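dumping these here so i dont lose them again. two proteins, back to back, each one seq then structure tokens. dont judge the mess
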Amino acid sequence: MKWIRYSLRTVSDAADIIAASLYDIGIEGVEIEENRPPSKEDLEQMFEDFIPEYDGSDNTAVVHFYLEPGPETEGMVAKVSEMIEDLRRTADIGEGTVTVSETEDVDWINSWKQYFHKFTVDGDILIIPSWEEEEDTGRYSLVLHIDPGTAFGTGMHETTRLAIRQLRKYLKPKDAVLDIGTGSGILGITALKSGASFVKGVDIDPNAVNAVNDNLVSNEIEGAAFEMLIGNLITDDGFMEPSDLEKYDIVTANILADVLTAIAPKAGKYMKDGALIVTSGILENKTSEVMDAFAANGFKPVETISEGEWVSVTFRKKEA
């Protein structure tokens, strides 16, 4: 199948905001290609055999996204144009121009591999894809073998790293975990390898099923420990089981802020009294909206952490 590839030229500081806005209007499969020097934090995460090239010319970026040709394509392109003009009013997005090309589906699925290399989270968690060789893993407290495939979630993005930190901090042995917006399964697999007894993953993207199954095999985790469901908890949660009610000790939700506010009225019924939900994927200017939504639905903030322009808030369900 051929896909239409759209390339939006912008500046590095706006790339994450544009990617988040594309997800907001329903576009998945976003790639960010940047031309800026690595930060001190970036360099600390990198191994000596992976230092990105940088020609020193500018701080531009290109945000690539893909649409399947069809009757809905024109309407989605119009939404992108409106989104660009809205962002121009509040942020410096640079050129904001879009070019179009055609690509084969196989190219889209595999091209991102050149950008995904092994790296660490907080120095003691090694995340490594299947196409790279392992090194001495003894110095890490946790090793995760993760291939994102066409599902989002490698751990390289700030939002995922924030969620991993909080999940590892608050998870207790034998906890049951509900992972909303599972993607590659990285948070659920982190939970299981950190002592959780069971994970149920929920995602609206069918690609998540194969991504999770492949990553479970790579991490030598029995499939029965991680149940993966496709469905939308916001619009229709009928695919959940009665046994899921008030079952979970920790919920993870690494999604965008607007989706988190919609999940706030739903999440509590699957959580035990006093259970925690780790939210991430929140841009700084959206934090108050998420805080208000969860407060209105019986949650109390426990901790807020940030990295760059992204925020993670951990909430506790108030006891009845």
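---- next one ----
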Amino acid sequence: MSSAFTSPPPRPPRVARLRRLAFASVLLIAAAAVVTFLAWRKPVVVRAHAGQVQFVTLPDGSQAALNSGSVLRYRRNFQRFPFAEATQRTSWLEGEAFFTVQPDEHPFVVATHNAQATTSAASFNVRARRGEDEGVTRVSVTQGRVEVAPLESGTPVEVEANQTTVVEDASLPPAPARPIPAAQDGRWRMGAFVVRELPLAAVLAEVERRFQVRVTWEGDLPSSEIVTLTVEKPSGASDVLRVLAEARSLTFRTTGRRSYAVEPAR
């Protein structure tokens, strides 16, 4: 007795079409989930271009003011993954910014190239620029208390209101906290030109960023010249250069529409 293989009857066209649509829908949902996850992982970036002060409200309601030529990055809602509560509120700073932090059970952290500042609620200034003979992170507190630590490891330093500290290396302890004039370092956000204990090259670079000008030094730039300077609401680069020249026995002159030359007084 012989037997013949009988193929199953073909599926109705409607059933096959529904299965294809269901499979395509699954693929679309999966692709959308991947795109959403990647977009969530991409940090929010806030930039203050030359000549600007940029104000931003952070996801927790805290405020940040960015000085000229600064960049702040943070994850959306301070979360590493969508719908997952973060253990801390972290941002990354290149440049200078003043933070007014809202109280929260999650620590607020500002990380730089070599340090991190942590608080539950405070108002404080962080400066962390690299180049122009400048590579330290300086944290100055106006209100509250901030814990400052090197980025890699080391004992943190507690910085209280009207105190400042400096981190010179990611593996070295911060300098002991010491007093500063009340609320001085953050006055740039209100129009003042403020630099504290910076090399002369860094001061001239700050003038260039703030006023969108070019400043050149005539001769060999002294690397040991350290400057602390506050000029209230200057109208232009010449106002700052005039005060700097008087304080440091320098002279300056205009060399173009938006350019200046500085040199030692003779």
